[in-house]
Amino acid sequence: MANSKNNIAFYRKKKRLTQEDVREEFFKRTGKKFTQGTISSWENGKTAPDINILHVLASILEVNVNNLYESNEEETDQPITSSELNRYEESLRQVQAMVKQNRKDEALDQLEELSRSMLAKLISLSTSYEKLTVQVKAVKEIMRI
C-alpha cells in the first residue's frame, strides 16, 4: 500500500481513476454531488464518509468496505525506542565533535544521513497515527447507525 492516510487513494489509483472520476461515478450511482475537495478530504483523513457512502465507494473501487481501512501490509511502525533516541543523540554528539575538529564536510554528511533517518521515522509514525485516526472516525460513523 502507498503511504496514504487510508486505502481509498491506493485503490482509486490502482483502478486508474481520478478523484473527479470517482465524483462522477458517485453522481451516476446515487444522484449525490460532492464538492471538489470531498474525495481528497476522505483520502487525507480529514473527514470520513458515512457507511452508505463507504459501500458505494467500495463498489466503485471494486473492493470490500473493510479493505478501505485495513492495512495491506504488516504494520511495522513502532514508537521511537529509547535505544533509537540514544543513537540519534550519539550521532549528534559525533557531528558536534566533527565540527569542532573542523571536519565540516564529514559532519554535514553525517548530519544529512541522521536527518533522513529521523524524518523517515517521523513520517512513518505520523502516517500510522493518521491511519488510526481515520479508522476511529469510520468506526464512530458506523456506530451512529
Tell me what you see in this structure.
The structure is a single chain. The chain is an all-alpha fold and 145 residues long. 66% of the residues lie in helices and 0% in strands. It has 6 helices and no strands. The longest helix has 41 residues, at 104-144. Residues 72-76 have low confidence and may be disordered.
Helix content: 55-70%
Low-confidence stretches: 72-76
Based on CA atoms alone, the radius of gyration comes out at 21 Å
Sketch the topology as an H/E string, one letter per element.
Answer: HHHHHH
Percent in strands? under 5%
End-to-end Cα distance: 29 Å
Subunit organisation of the chains: single chain
- What's the overall geometry? elongated
- Mean pLDDT, to the nearest integer, reads 81
Biggest sheet descriptor? none
How many runs of DSSP E, i.e. beta strands?
Answer: 0
SS content category: mainly alpha
Number of helices: 6
Features:
about 140 residues, mainly alpha, about 65% helix, elongated
Quickly describe the structure:
66% of the residues lie in helices and 0% in strands.
Could you outline the blueprint of secondary structure elements for this entry?
Blueprint: H1 8-14, H2 19-30, H3 38-43, H4 51-61, H5 82-100, H6 104-144
